Structure formats: structure tokens, C-alpha cells
Amino acid sequence: MAFKELFSTDIGLLSVFTIAFIIGMAIFLGRYVKQHVEEDERTHGQGQ
Fold it and tell me: InterPro entries attached here (predicted)?
């Protein structure tokens, strides 16, 4: 019942899209920050 409503109603589809978008943004931001931290460590050295 819940899955049928989740994927067949407008508000359910909006909820699925929102959840997927938030998870995607979290993955993107995590990778972005990790990449820039590693770049800064290479540029400025560690432990200074």
C-alpha cells in the first residue's frame, strides 16, 4: 500500500525525487570537499 502510494501519487513522486536529490547532493558535496582538502594538503603541506 505505501509503495503504491509513494510511486503513484504526485506528492509521493515528489518525495522520492526530494530524497534522491538530497542523497545525490550529499555524495557530491562529500566528494567535492574531500577533493579540495586533498588538494590543499598537497599544496600547503601537512602539519604546518
Answer: DUF3149 (IPR021494)
Phi-psi region of 46 (alpha: psi -120 to 50; beta: other; left: phi over 0): beta
Contact status, residue 27 vs residue 21, Cβ threshold 8 Å:
no
Alpha-carbon span 38 to 45, nearest angstrom: 10
Instruction: Tell me the residue range of the domain where 25 lies.
Output: 2-44
pLDDT at position 48 is 56
Number of domains in the chain: 1
Evaluate if pTM is beyond 0.70.
yes
Grid cell, residue 2, equals 505505501
